[in-house]
Design a protein that fits this description.
168 residues; mainly alpha; transmembrane; 0% strand; membrane; single chain; 76% helix; coiled coil
Length: 168
Amino acid sequence: MALFSKDVPEEKPEENPKDKKGKSKDKKDKKDKKGKGKEDDDKPGLKRPGTSGTENILITNRKEAMEQFAKAQRAEKVWRAKKQATAARENYTETKTHFRECFSHFKLAFTGLFAVMLAIPHLIRDKKEQRRKKADAARRARDLERKKKLEEALARQSIDTTVTKLDA
């Protein structure tokens, strides 16, 4: 016997004996089908549903689970968006401060660049002066060395001349 199939034959209710006014004589027959009266029995389109209570519970549980899942997904998306928005705000403020610093540093860099460009002749003069001082110090050292050698040579020559005069 299939619980969920639609091939299950349905039982037709028995016809109730009616009096002249169209009412049922049996009071028990009047309230069958869960409190529904005789008016529902006479309509040909109404039949007992073909699903069982278990199937209805499963369908209801599935629908509730789908709704809970959709609600959880929405909550997760909201949480993720909130988290990403917080990170984006932090990045935005940090970037703003970096750009502020960047523009101030850029301004300082160009101010310094123009000052250096204006000071290039002074730098060149300073380098020339340093080279001149170094060359003068080297020339002075060479001159002192030559002078020392000449004095030594003269001293030797004077000693030799005095020695030769004495020998003679």
